[in-house]
Amino acid sequence: MTGGLKDTRRGRVRRAAGFALLSGVLVTSLVACASANGTENADAEPAADADVIQEAFDALPDDIKESGVLKAASSFDYGPFAYLEADSGDRAGFDYDAVNAIASRIGLEVEWTTLGTFESLIPAAQSGQADAVVDGMGIIEERLGAVSFVYMMNADNAILVQAGNPANVDPADMCGSHLTTAPSGLQAIVFEEESAKCVADGKEPIEVSLLADTAAASAGVLAGQFDGQGWGTATGNFSVRANPDFEVTDPIPGYATPNGIILQDSDRGEAIGNAFVIALQSMMDDGTLQEIADANTMGSDVPTQTFYVRTPDQLEELLASDPALQDG
User: Fold this and answer.
1) 205, exposed or middle or buried, with CB in 10 Å at 0-12, 13-18, 19+?
2) Distance (Å, rounded) from C-alpha 124 to C-alpha 33?
3) Whole-prediction pTM value?
4) What angle do CA 228, 73, 236 make, to 5 degrees?
5) Cα separation, 117 vs 27, whole angstroms
6) Residue 252 in contact with residue 159, Cβ under 8 Å?
7) 8-state DSSP, 311
8) With contact defined as beta carbons under 8 Å apart, do 185 and 158 qualify?
């Protein structure tokens, strides 16, 4: 994509070695991961269901086949991808519904865990605390080597601002703006890159405040502490529906990004990913994933092909597959 994540991917991965999104590594208090996909267990069978895809079930690691349970997790703080309903506290969202549907097609039950923050996502997948983790996370090269992904949606990036945009935040020229986002969020990379361009052009850099508490960051926007908050466009629109004191800018040019399910960067994670790809592709083919997107007001069409992404070459193949990702 011109000027965006695709073209700068190799340069940024070197700079990101110390970046917060890869700094979580393994959290020792989390559950250690199980063994890699081993010898196929002939006794394991999926739950009885006419819609279960046997090929997907057979691709799973043996311990999941034997238990019939998929451990899934999210911070549930990023609607409409994954969030808690305001009135009931029930889990909801596109990612949540999609993982439940994928598991159903594989013949698994899902045990969900609510994590503390967005910063908890990568460590939960790395450690094996969860087999699959979701929360609207972008698939970018900086995260490969820490985790792997199954691709299921594209997302634009935008700025959540006060209604009326009193700070006049321009997504095409954010120089001099005071913006906030999560430390390991994709928007932190976007702001870093755009700020460097500002400096190179002789303009004021973007002042970026990194806050793990996304709700506190949003409150800071309304209080005038920040000019805006980095969000995906769908998430920004979700926030506006809940609170009309916000509005969302146009997308930041050049940063359309694939999103997906987070898995371990391991043979075990790849086995789960291969099973997910089979089930998810069937959901794309028969329209189920689009129905889930529409029910969650995602505001865009889902892709027509899914990918498991563990290596830069696999990410390159994904990016080349969709014109929307090439042009940002």
Assistant:
1) middle
2) 10
3) 0.79
4) 20
5) 14
6) yes
7) S
8) no
Q: Categorize the per-residue pLDDT at 10 as very low, low, confident or very high, splitting at 50, 70 and 90.
A: very low
Q: How confident is the model over 196-227, as pLDDT tens digits? A: 999 999 999 999 999 988 889 999 999 999 99
What tokens appear for 311 in the block?
A: 């290596």
SS3 readout for 181-245: ECCCCHHHHHHHHHHHHHHHCCCCCCEEEECCCHHHHHHHHHCCCCCEEEEEHHHHHHHHHHCCC
Q: Which DSSP category does 300 fall into?
A: S
| Nearest by Cα to 185 from 159, 204, 162 | 159
The residue assigned the tokens 């092909």 is 305
Is there a cis peptide before residue 80, judged by omega within 30 degrees of 0? yes
Calpha distance 263→148 (Å, rounded): 5
- In this prediction, residues 226-250 reach a mean pLDDT of 94
* Closest listed residue to residue 69, CA positions, set 106, 16, 111: 111
